[in-house]
UniProtKB/TrEMBL annotation:
Residues 1-19 form the signal peptide. Residues 138-374 form the Fibrinogen C-terminal domain. SUPFAM superfamilies: C-type lectin-like (SSF56436), Fibrinogen C-terminal domain-like (SSF56496). It comes from Oesophagostomum dentatum (Nodular worm). This is Fibrinogen beta and gamma chain, globular domain protein. The keyword Signal applies. It holds the Pfam family Lectin_C. Residues 28-138 form the C-type lectin domain. GO terms for cellular component: extracellular space. The keyword Secreted does not apply. Keywords: Disulfide bond, Signal.
């Protein structure tokens, strides 16, 4: 039983890196295996699977056989249908796959046509197709394009997931809180990572992405951010900040957040321009943008780094250390700026303006994340 539990855990971990819904596992044919515990005869079970875009599963090797056994074991199904049919000893799979691998019980197959698996041993027998049993469908993988796709598929635990954009797979960190489905593209937790002096190439491709979590500093990358913000008609940006490091601040443990819709970043030919973002001042979601001074000032601004300054005021990067941001004559926010507070009374380095120019904070932590706007 311990060995079976380990096998189930490894199957679920493998599926997690691929695009199978919660509770399903991936077989060696890149199909998602789904167990139905509502018993049906073989023909109705096959019809059910076809209606969900697949077939009763074929079994191509020992790994696949172990996979279906483990799946049935976790749901207490004693017998279950797979997609095999036999006629006078000649057997076929309902999905059209070649019938090469077998795992017959002693004396099988016999004159009955439909293949049933005994969960206890994973051995196959042919039985009357009218029997009512659990069954396992195989369906194609879904293509997950962001964390919202994973959340909508039933995954509600924050962590690392794999998404596919334009045929390329990426590892991302998904925040499944606050309605779930947030793809995190910036996280700062302390001053161990400077951020402001990273190069154009590093901001384009991302940095510290091998160790993404809510306790590490990372930037996902401008190129993937561009793709994520143009694949949907409307994208929401959520910014969260915790603690003000400004000396003498009365908000040392405060929490701020705000949501902006219509968020979009251009491609590299536009210098990853901040094309748009919108906040509804009459129905503002958050407490971080209560004045007119916030990130929306940067709409239309190109991105700047230490080695590619696209701001006419070069000292915004070189002196004020606001590199790694959308700058146009500096900015009214800079969450990738230098963590060190050089001048607490001005917007230098890492800062945010909460309520007009009289309330400049230097957050202890920040998170920037996006998801398709919910209607």
């Amino acid at each position: 039983m311990r060995q079976l539990a380990f096998f189930v855990a490894s199957l679920l971990a493998f599926a997690r890196a691929h695009s199978c819904p919660e509770g399903d596992v991936l077989n060696t044919q890149d199909q998602c295996l789904h167990l139905e515990t509502t018993t049906k005869n073989w023909e109705d079970a096959e019809s059910y699977c076809v209606g969900h875009g697949g077939h009763l599963t074929s079994v191509q090797n020992q790994y696949d056989n172990n996979a279906v056994q483990a799946l049935a074991e976790t749901h207490n199904c004693k017998y279950f249908w797979i997609g095999g049919l036999c006629n006078t000893g000649a057997c076929t799979w309902s999905d059209g796959a070649p019938f090469k691998y077998t795992f017959w019980d002693q004396g099988a197959p016999d004159s009955d046509p439909c293949i049933s698996v005994y969960t206890g041993t994973a051995e196959w027998n042919t039985v009357p197709c009218s029997n009512s049993e659990c069954f396992i469908c195989e369906t194609p993988q879904a293509v997950m394009t962001d964390c919202a796709d994973w959340y909508n598929a039933g995954y509600n635990t924050s962590g690392l997931y794999e998404i596919t954009l334009n045929g390329i797979s990426y590892k991302v960190y998904c925040n499944m809180d606050n309605g779930g489905g947030w793809t995190v593209f910036q996280r700062r937790v302390d001053g161990s990572e400077p951020f402001w002096n990273r190069t154009w190439s590093e901001y384009r491709n991302g940095f510290n992405t091998d160790s993404m979590s809510m306790s590490t500093n990372f930037w996902l990358g401008l190129e993937i951010l561009h793709q994520l913000t143009v694949k949907d008609s409307d994208v929401t940006l959520r910014i969260e900040m915790r603690g003000d490091r400004t000396p003498g601040s009365t908000s040392a443990n405060e929490y701020w957040y705000n949501e902006y819709t219509k968020f979009q970043v251009g491609d590299e030919s536009t210098k990853y321009q901040l094309i748009n973002m919108y906040v509804d001042w009459l129905n503002n979601k958050g407490n971080a943008s209560t004045g007119w001074y916030d990130m929306t000032y940067s709409i239309g601004a190109p991105f700047s780094t230490v080695d590619k300054i696209n701001d006419p005021q070069t000292n915004c990067v070189t002196e004020y250390k606001m590199g790694g941001w959308w700058l146009r004559n500096c900015a009214l926010s800079s969450l990738n700026g230098d963590y060190t507070i050089a001048d607490p009374n001005n917007g230098y380095g890492m800062f945010w303006i909460v309520d007009g120019l009289d309330n400049i904070i230097h957050p202890r932590e920040s998170t920037m994340m996006i998801r398709p706007t919910q209607q």
